[in-house]
Amino acid sequence: MVTALVLLNLDRNQIKDVSQKLVDMQEVSEVYSVAGRYDLVAIIRVKNNEQIADTITGKFSELEGITATETLIAFNTFSRHDLELMFSIGE
């Protein structure tokens, strides 16, 4: 499994519509509306890097309203939730 975080800039009036279209994609597990330099963060989880490329250059580019993207490919995942499961003793 490969995970990528895609930081997106959008036309302001398209945020709600683009968010819904992104979350409807099978490759996208979560979409966050965020404050700061970017408008949205989309989490992509797929089998390989080629699927990340196909999703971003193919499916994302078909959406009207996205003005720019920056993609971060995750090397490792560190999660408090995962660590808690590893160390729980069946409570």
TrEMBL record:
Q: Which Pfam families match?
A: AsnC_trans_reg
Please report the stretch or stretches of sequence annotated as the Transcription regulator AsnC/Lrp ligand binding domain. 6-77
Write down what this protein is called: Transcription regulator AsnC/Lrp ligand binding domain-containing protein
Native organism is marine metagenome
